[in-house]
Amino acid sequence: MQHKTLLTLSFLLSQVLLLACAEDLECVPGFQQKVFYIEQPFEFTEDQPVLNLEFDDCKGNNKLNFEVSNPDFKVERDGSLVALKNISEAGRALFVHARSEHAEDMAEILIVGANEKHGALKEIFKIEGNLGIPRQKRAILATPILIPENQRPPFPRSVGKVITSEGTEGAKFRLSGKGVDQEPKGIFRINEISGDVSVTRALDREAIANYELEVEVTDISGKTIDGPVRLDISVIDQNDNRPMFKEGPYVGHVMEGSPTGTTVMRMTAFDADDSSTDNALLRYNILRQTPTKPSPNMFYIDPEKGDIVTVVSPVLLDRETMETPKYELVIEAKDMGGLDVGLTDTATATILIDDKNDHAPEFTKKEFQATVKEGVTGVIVNLTVGDRDDPATGAWRAVYTIINGNPGQSFEIHTNPQTNEGMLSVVKPLDYEISAFHTLLIKVENEDPLIPDIAYGPSSTATVQITVEDVNEGPVFHPNPMTVTKEENIPIGSVVLTVNATDPDTLQHQTIRYSVYKDPAGWLEINPTNGTIGTTAVLDRESPYVHNNIYTALFLAIDSGNPPATGTGTLHITLEDVNDNVPSLYPTLAKVCDDAKDLRVVVLGASDKDLHPNTDPFKFELSKQPGPEKLWRITKLNNTHAQVVLLQNLKKANYNIPISVTDSGKPPLTNTTELKLQVCSCKKSKMDCSATDALHISMTLILLSLFSLFCL
Q1: CA 391 to CA 359: how far, in whole Å?
Q2: CA distance 291 to 513
Q3: Locate the Cadherin domain: which residues (predicted)?
């Protein structure tokens, strides 16, 4: 009853609109009513008429044919819409496309629920919003136009008609808006005399779904005499866009042993068609699964949501028994609710079965053997294990621990990252004489913890038996290095030290001989039998072979083994200083101008190779000066420096001044050095000493001459 009420109201509305302008109506090609509202029944009954559609091409409807968007319905020749089978769900809308030899049109049938009835009626009677008729009386009737997208040529094609009840002479229709005189321009046009509206090219609903135009009536001068009135043109969706998977690649993960029904991932496709129609109603399906073992149907996809879930028991979802832990599903998305007429797209979903640590690592054998020579370090054996978990995860990677037999921390074990083997190494050299055998107990675990119902068993521990081989070891000096303190310059043949070396191979009873290995200055010798070291030359602390007062020599201890083994001992001799070096004076040349006002000639310094207290403070003295007048004097500045000062200006000449320097050693040592003093002529800040050689005066010669004259 409610269904019939909606149809009756819809029909009455169309009749009211047509009668309002009956005196001026002409035949308009197409459906006489373009929008229908029907209430969703409990079920559409097979072959039971749903409603009547009236189509008229105004030329006899020759070769009239109807197409329905839902293949479960058809339209009879007389316009009756009937169901082809009993249907409980038909969607939200049906579209009927009618085509004859002279016209084609589209009608929309909206299916509403019982709770939507009042809203539907409101939409039918909302004249101003949907049919372009204002509340005040207007002479223009512009009913909404529905145009299917993707129509085929020829164009232009008539799609509707605007009529007016007032036949003003010379009046013309004028159409404006987006699609006419606004971009995109030129899609629609109107016959200014008849009011026929035509489309000039195929429309694309996905580009523009609705056009809101305005139509008005003008007089012969172009002045508006009625309107404007809104003309709504809606583009009816066609299923011209296939679904698209846009978000790939699609990769999902599921843990092995997961319960049945575990969600792995979601696959969703996009359809550009009208989402309110079956054209964009997608359904999902698994077309193919690779591989097909242990079951060809490992997964299920929710046809509406696209959720992929597991459908096999947790026992079958066992990564270690699978042919491969990677499954590929070819997923199909089909529009039109999955019907055969729907368009499709496919994508591949890759599902990886992730490993969990459900297998403990196990040694490949219970006991391993290793042999190592004493004194050698490095890897001695590789321990092998098996683990059925994924090698790329912490459930497979092994961690080894020595749990017994390593009190001296002589052994370490590390995991080979490529093979997962345990590399057992000697890190502290072993001594055969202390222990010839070692027994280690080693356990293996995974980086990741085992799952609760799995535990490490006896096979996760192993024993390693290590045999140490005896090697002829070189003698060892005690202590090493050896240190001794001696004065430099001790007599040749003096005993420096008697060294002591022992053979670690206590069970072999070998003899030891000694020899010099490195003696940079050639000062030492060693008794080959008892190891006594003596001097063969004077020990000089100031020698370049002595560094920081220490002289270093190396000696060898050689056993009688076959082949013989050698040990090296280092001797450090600390040399005590003796005052055996005279001090030296610097500089030995000085220059001064013959007219100099500053008669401080030069500052002298003294140095000594010896050590304190055999060096400074130094004593500086001048030899006795000739003649009644003293020409210069020397003044001490500090412990290491003194200054020579002229007492008067001298003539241009060379003078040799004997100066003695004495150190503070016991006994002290003195050194006399001649200071050469050049008295030069100085003009314009230039010093000329070229003629001083000719006027050379040696104080020594002067003293000798005066002494000779005095004797005569």
Answers
A1: 12
A2: 78
A3: 172-245, 246-363, 364-477, 478-585, 584-695
Looking at the structure, tell me whether residues 499 and 437 fall in a common domain. Answer: no
Q: Where are the beta strands (DSSP E) in 326-460?
A: 326-334, 344-354, 362-363, 367-373, 378-383, 385-386, 398-404, 411-415, 422-426, 437-446
Pair 81, 68: CB distance under 8 Å: yes
Give the single-character DSSP code of 450.
P
Q: In whole angstroms, what is the distance from residue 194 CA to residue 677 CA?
A: 135
SS3 634: strand
Tens-place pLDDT, residues 451-488: 998 999 999 999 999 999 988 888 999 999 999 999 99
Residue 560 DSSP class: -
Any residues with CB less than 8 A from the CB of 61 and at least 6 apart, and which? 55, 100
In a domain, residue 459? The reply is yes
β-sheet bridge partners, residue 99: 65, 104
**CA 82/CA 90 separation, integer angstroms:** 12
Q: Which domain holds residue 167?
A: 140-236
Q: How many other CB atoms are found less than 10 A from the CB of residue 56? A: 19
The answer to whether 421 and 415 are in contact (CB under 8 A) is yes
Report how far residue 41's alpha carbon sits from residue 3's, in angstroms, rounded to the nearest whole number.
Answer: 8
In the chain, the amino acid numbered 138 is R
DSSP state of 547: B
- φ and ψ at residue 517, rounded to 5 degrees: -100, -55
The label of the residue with tokens 């987006």 reads 178
In angstroms, the CA 123 to CA 116 distance is 11
Q: What is the CATH number of the domain that holds 176?
A: 2.60.40.60
Q: What is the pLDDT of residues 20-70, one digit of tens each?
A: 333 334 577 888 887 887 877 767 888 888 889 998 888 888 888 888 877
The 3-state DSSP class for residue 129 equals: helix
The residue type found at 217 is V
Helix or strand holding residue 309 (H, E): strand 307-310
Q: Say if 199 falls within a structural domain.
A: yes
d(CA 287, CA 391): 32
Rounded CA-CA distance 374/468 in Å is 6
Indicate if 588 and 501 belong to the same structural domain. Answer: no
Q: What ranges in 541-640 are assigned the alpha helix state H?
A: none
**In degrees rounded to 5, what are phi and psi of residue 2?**
-65, -40
The CA angle 199-201-205, to the nearest 5 degrees, is: 90
Question: Contact at 8 Å (CB) between 616 and 639?
Answer: yes
Which sign does the torsion angle of CA 336, 342, 343, 348 carry?
Answer: positive
Tell me how far apart the alpha carbons of residues 142 and 164 are, in angstroms, rounded to a whole number: 9
Query: Span 605-610, mean pLDDT?
Result: 90
Instruction: Give the 3-state secondary structure of residue 336.
Output: helix
Q: Token pair of 675, please?
A: 């200071």
Beta partners for residue 566, in sequence order: 558
CB atoms within 10 A of CB 560: 14
pTM tops 0.90: no
Final residue belonging to a domain, choices 443, 469, 495? 469
- How many domains are contained in the chain? 6
Q: What is the pLDDT of residues 204-259, one digit of tens each?
A: 999 999 999 999 999 988 899 988 999 999 998 888 899 999 998 999 999 999 99
Residues 624 and 598 in one domain: yes
Check residue 168 and give its pLDDT. Answer: 67
Q: What is the dihedral of CA 603, 607, 611, 614, to 10 degrees?
A: -80
Give the model's confidence band at 114: pLDDT under 50 very low, under 70 low, under 90 confident, else very high: low
Whole-angstrom Cα distance, residue 682 to residue 694? Answer: 17
Reading the block at residue 147, the tokens are: 């145009």
**SS3 of 71-90:** CCEEECCCCEEEECCCECCC
d(CA 346, CA 328): 12
